Amino acid sequence: MTRVWKWNRPVTVREVLEDLQQERSIAYTTVMTVLDNLHQKGWVRREAEGRAYRYEAVSTRAAYAAALMNDAWSQSDNPAAALVAFFGMMSEEQRQALSDAVRMVQGPETVEPSEPRQREAGQEEPAQEQNPGSAEGADGR
């Protein structure tokens, strides 16, 4: 699948074979069998072109990764704990990507600083600034 996603267009067995052969020795029939198996499982669609087929991914790599994460999360008996454990495994770069994704899903009206400031013990939380273009008052109404 990595090779099919890499080109982001319909590919032939020969193209995948030639790409793989730059790294290792592999037979044409092996690549053909793998692509046929992916087609039978519904991961790629194919269209005849002469005596060969062109194979194209059914979904994006991102959609595949999202489906894997969703499947793993839905199998947990405690989804909140699974998420906490998952977040604990993330690198700083991954946490930033997650924050960016959450902001994209929430839309432009939800703006939070990318690096929250930590307060020292006994220090009061800073007052929230009112949006100058907002009709809300200080009490949130």
Automatic annotation (TrEMBL):
<dbReference type="InterPro" id="IPR036390">
    <property type="entry name" value="WH_DNA-bd_sf"/>
</dbReference>
<keyword id="KW-0805">Transcription regulation</keyword>
<keyword id="KW-0238">DNA-binding</keyword>
<dbReference type="InterPro" id="IPR005650">
    <property type="entry name" value="BlaI_family"/>
</dbReference>
<dbReference type="Pfam" id="PF03965">
    <property type="entry name" value="Penicillinase_R"/>
</dbReference>
<dbReference type="InterPro" id="IPR036388">
    <property type="entry name" value="WH-like_DNA-bd_sf"/>
</dbReference>
<feature type="region of interest" description="Disordered">
    <location>
        <begin position="98"/>
        <end position="141"/>
    </location>
</feature>
<keyword id="KW-0804">Transcription</keyword>
<dbReference type="GO" id="GO:0003677">
    <property type="term" value="F:DNA binding"/>
</dbReference>
<dbReference type="GO" id="GO:0045892">
    <property type="term" value="P:negative regulation of DNA-templated transcription"/>
</dbReference>
<comment type="similarity">
    <text>Belongs to the BlaI transcriptional regulatory family.</text>
</comment>
<protein>
    <recommendedName>
        <fullName>CopY family transcriptional repressor</fullName>
    </recommendedName>
</protein>
